[in-house]
Amino acid sequence: MRYPLVELATALLFAGIAALVGLTWALPAYLYLAGIAVPLALIDLQVRRLPDQIVLPSYAVALVLLTVASAGTGDWAALLRALVGGVSLFALYALIFVVKPGGMGLGDVKLAGVLGLYLAWWGWDALAVGGFLAFLIGGLIAVGLILFTSAGRRSKMPFGPAMLAGAFLALIVAAPVGDWYLGLTGLST
């Protein structure tokens, strides 16, 4: 039963990404992200780790596919933004990993860099919203586990699925959320 569900989830994610991104130069890059998201989430849920065999090659694949997308669109600023975003999100997670030992796994840190590439290529608002949503979704899941299961405050939970969900949700809502926030601050354009 598991295999058909994995295939269905992947197909639905592919369809959603195709509808969101459209037939653009960026589509292969975001389909690749969707392709690794389902196995990463399931593996993290099952064994609480994000395998290097999937995460580490994703840096090279993302860089190649996002470079092709930037070349195809002529938007080299998006590629530079992706590089800065990938390093920034990786650095933020690495800092959390060092400051709060045991609060986050090294796999989460590695995945953060990959997600930072994709989110920042999409836009700065996607990077900010995606980074925030990962912690919001993770926190909501943790509260639910504490309230409705035997989990406690110190229980370990896989964070990769929340990171991935936050990233995909950010691709959808980043622009309106960013506009809303800038409107609140009086900085809207």
The topology string of helices and strands comes to HHHHHHH
Q: Give a short account of the largest sheet.
A: none
Number of separate strands? 0
Radius of gyration: 17 Å
- How far the N terminus sits from the C terminus, by CA atoms, comes to 50 Å
Number of helices: 7
Low-confidence stretches: none
Strand content: under 5%
Query: What gross morphology would you assign?
Result: globular
Amount of helix: over 70%
Mean pLDDT equals 92
EC number: 2.1.1.-, 3.4.23.43
Family: Belongs to the peptidase A24 family.
Organism: Kineococcus aurantiacus
Pfam families: Peptidase_A24
Question: What do you see in this structure?
Answer:
The protein is mostly helical. It contains 7 helices and no strands. It has helices at 2-21, 27-47, 52-73, 76-99, 106-122, 124-148, 160-185. Helix 2 (27-47) packs antiparallel against helix 3 (52-73) and helix 3 runs antiparallel to helix 4 (76-99).
List keywords for this structure.
189 residues, mainly alpha, globular
What's this, in brief?
With 189 residues, the chain is mostly helical. It has 7 helices and no strands.
Task: Summarize the helices and strands and which ones pair or pack.
Blueprint (H helix, E strand, L loop, with lengths): L1 H20 L5 H21 L4 H22 L2 H24 L6 H17 L1 H25 L11 H26 L4
Helix pairs in contact: 1-2, 2-3, 2-7, 3-4, 3-5, 4-5, 5-6, 5-7, 6-7
